[in-house]
Amino acid sequence: MPTHTITLRNGIEMPTLGQGTWFMGESFFEKKNEIAALQHGIDIGLTLIDTAEMYGNGGAEKVVGEAIAGRRDKIFLVSKVLPNHASLRGTVRAFEDSLKRLKTDYLDMYLLHWRGGYSLEETFEALEKLRQEGKIRSWGVSNFDTDDMQEAEEYDPDGNCCINQVLYNLGSRGIEWALIPWQKKRNIPVMAYSPLYQTRLLRSSGLVRIAQELSITPAQLALSWLLHQGTVPIPKSSNAQRIEENRKAWDIELSQEVLRELDRVFPPPTHKMPLDIL
Ligand code: NAP
């Protein structure tokens, strides 16, 4: 059975299944429902919450702030700085703004959302400063391909970069060729975003057939497969029933035979492919 937590290279424990928040905080009329959905997820053990200053222009962080009020200590909270804010001073400013919206005084993980104009050296200096001041427990990157990770390593000699959040799901397996092996060697887990390919994957006849044979849903199969790869999927749902469905992926054991069948339907890469991005 896939483990419910992993230990990051800095010794911090992190849940292996979380809740995404992209597209939350965009509509006043959806806010109540989104808060309730996240809280339901927390109640059933989905305490890792992934958000970003970008989502809903800060609106998603506000939704998360309300959802975690009174239960911050149970939450593993991840947010991200936009690349155009990721200078030495800009990162700290963006971070403080995120904290205000999230109504908290620390983050468990802070990520550079994707590479932009500022040097990694400068951004990492800011992230390290926040970590050393105890304002973030760990930091990492997002949308980094293997060459980006190699460059990142040059500016992170002590190995403080703890995670790379990238697009990964059964329909997009390119990172298995080079990026995942590179990260595995260094104990840097992949946090898998768009694990359902924003529902695109759920319409795959092969996935639907195998899920039916196992008496589970296509979403559960997609998430369970990611957990079996040792990655950390963060599906987004604003629906309590679908959140419960996704949570059950934690309790599913896939046999070698099923994993082989999934490889037949969704073949792994046979050569280096560029990183898929949404
Ligand atoms: P996703 O999680 O693959 O898919 C989300 C969609 O799936 C929503 O429309 C949701 O609708 C639906 N859904 C969820 N559970 C379902 C289920 N059991 N059955 C059927 N439909 C289901 O896509 P995502 O939101 O792009 O990715 C997840 C999270 O990753 C994001 O929310 C964000 O936190 C993060 N992310 C990061 C980056 C990055 O650049 N770092 C990029 C993209 C995403 P309902 O809400 O109606 O259930």
UniProtKB/TrEMBL annotation:
Record domain NADP-dependent oxidoreductase: where: 17-264
Pfam families the UniProt entry points to: Aldo_ket_red (PF00248)
Active site: Y55 (proton donor)
Coiled-coil region: none
Residue(s) at site: Lowers pKa of active site Tyr: K80
Gene3D superfamilies assigned to the protein according to its UniProt record, in alphabetical order: NADP-dependent oxidoreductase domain
One GO MF term: oxidoreductase activity
Residues where substrate binds: H113
Domain of life: Bacteria
Name this polypeptide is given: Aldo/keto reductase
